[in-house]
Structure prediction request, 137 residues.
Amino acid sequence: MALSVACTDRLVLADIASCLKRPPSSLPPTCSLESTFRPTASAWSVDGTSLYLASAHSIARYDASGTLVKVVYDDPHSEDIGALVVARDKGTIIFAAGTGVHFLEHSASASSASRIVHSLPPHLDSEPISSLSLSND
Prediction:
């Protein structure tokens, strides 16, 4: 099981079992993030092979070693992404942007395009959604 820690300019991936057995004095960065990419939310795929990291208007997919695989969603006109979860099928990412919830379908292929296949109507509260959770039943 892996832990991801996203900071302003870096991503840290750590093995939880190793950290619990012998806590490190610090967690070295796994990779640097672009200066324009400020993480707002993250979620692991169900099988633990991919990490999805969101910034205000985009979602990027990283492999378990911290290598950027591809940007799966990028819309500079969308509201800020505040939360995301990955469905069990691994091809669907559910994310909250502002007061709306969107279902994004994407392929594991680095060259395939992603698309929003469904959006829930905005909730009545004018506050942005800050958290999502998905049960695995």
